[in-house]
Amino acid sequence: MFEYFEDRDDRLIYHSVTLDPTAMINGTLRGGPKSKDTYPVDSVGEVPIKKMTQKYARNPEVPADEDIAKISFYLSEQTSSSIYSSTGKIRVDYHREPGSLTFGQAMYHYEDGNLRRRPSNLRQPTQVQVHKLLQMQSSCRDTIMASHTSIQQELTTRRKDEISIRGMRSVSAGKKRDLTIPGSRDDVLEPSVYDLARESARVEGTREGAEEEKQEEQTSKVDILAPYLVDFINKETGLVQLDSLQAELVAKKCTTDFRKRLTDRAEIIQRRLEEEQELLRKRRAQMQRRGDSVERDERDFEQYQNQAMFRTQILEQRLARHEMQAIEKFQDLERMLQEDPRLAAMWQKEPAAVKG
């Protein structure tokens, strides 16, 4: 078992426990009475702990060669229930000095009811240091057991919730079922309010995008040059006949207006995106100022934040899609202008002037 931590006051960033199932015979501890250094395992029982490890972040207020980076407690080697008469050991690794490739390390062995370093000519720990190491071992054991208890409580709560939900689903379906039996893979839990909110936002964003595409499709079926050719219609024949300058003017005005419409739409989406982000920033700042916010306010904000972030994601996707489609639409417009017979004069060269 191992866990990682962040931003703890004691700078603990990791702890783990390694078990020793070989110290058991037929499910019972080898050597008689139960040791306090065991870890409960489902379907197995109490398993002896082989090693406990803790890692700490750097403390800038302490010299690196005195700042503990990792400490390991080897427990399975103990031969007695008394910690002072065991043959276990404690290994301490210190942080590296800046620019150094090596780090300090000390190994302490249990000998004659005390902690000693080997060989004996090494600097031996003081009583204060011994007490600190033993206290750290006890604290490490307590932390690991408290974590195990918390995990078991959470798993128990989850199982109860799942059983309750399966029961409600069975009742609504008119079925009777033994709820003590674990559910199958077909028993899907009800979606949470956040899942429903995200799905609703996704459907809404997709619907808006589909409506815009439908409007664009209808617009594409309209004669895009019609507004620009009104002034060039022959009243007698009702036909349009342009010279090269007139055709070029119509094409230029059509292209300019089309580019402006694409730009305006991108600006609208961008503005909505910025407004959504600004509202979310304001709500976050408001929650941070209210340090004594009640649980209901926090739930409401979390729900709003999930919805706002999803709306933001939809707008970002729509903006990216619009930018990609804008390039394609502009290319289609240029191709249409080139193929429109009413603008054919624009692509024909003027006849050369005859010299007199």
Automatic annotation (TrEMBL):
Protein's GO biological process: cell motility
Disordered: region residues: 200-219
Top-level division of the source organism's lineage: Eukaryota
InterPro entries xref list: DRC7/lobo, DRC7_C, MORN_DRC7
Domain Dynein regulatory complex subunit 7 C-terminal: 241-347
Main location: cytoplasm
Keywords per UniProt: Coiled coil, Cytoplasm, Cytoskeleton
Residue ranges that the Swiss-Prot or TrEMBL entry lists as coiled coil: 259-290
Family annotation (Pfam families): DRC7_C (PF24671), MORN_DRC7 (PF24667)
Basic and acidic residues bias locations: 200-209
Domain Dynein regulatory complex subunit 7 MORN: 1-162
An example Gene Ontology CC term for this record: motile cilium
Location in the cell: Cytoplasm, Cytoskeleton
UniProt-listed PANTHER family: DYNEIN REGULATORY COMPLEX SUBUNIT 7
Entry protein name: Drc7 protein
